[in-house]
Amino acid sequence: MTYRVCFVCTGNICRSPMAESVFRARVEETGLDGLVEVDSAGTGGWHEGDPADPRTVSVLEANGYPGHHAARQFQTSWFARLDLVIALDEGHLKALRRLAPTSADADKIRLLRSYDPAAGDDLDVPDPYYGGMDGFEECLELVEAASPGLLAAVREKVEGRVV
Hints:
The chain is an alpha/beta fold. It has helices at residues 15-29, 54-62, 90-99, 103-106, 133-162; strands at 3-9, 36-42, 84-87, 109-111. It contains 5 helices and 4 strands; from the N terminus they run βαβαβααβα.
């Protein structure tokens, strides 16, 4: 049975596609790609069908990750098929919880940086859209820092299903 993870930011062109690409690479590196499905979406549909922001693609590719992507908007109906919904900041967390049809669905939503033990109290991944390349590089650093903890949590769930 496939374990499904969806990363969610605002427009699905910066943070969430970056998190999707990084986490998919981690899943593949550990041999879980047959058991874990990774995707992303935005809370809004402004960029539906668009590729990731060119700065996102540049930072991803410069660090060895694929940059291909098509933006889409998160749909309430997806909760039924998803196991984990990863919000990139507190605003996304609140928006997703408002969309969740049941309390069980709301329990599937987590902040990405909650998986980074060094994150401290600020669990938001800042939106790099209105800034320069340094914001996109910081975004990648934050995503990469949270990925091992998220991978460990997902692996535990997947292995629990397989046993």
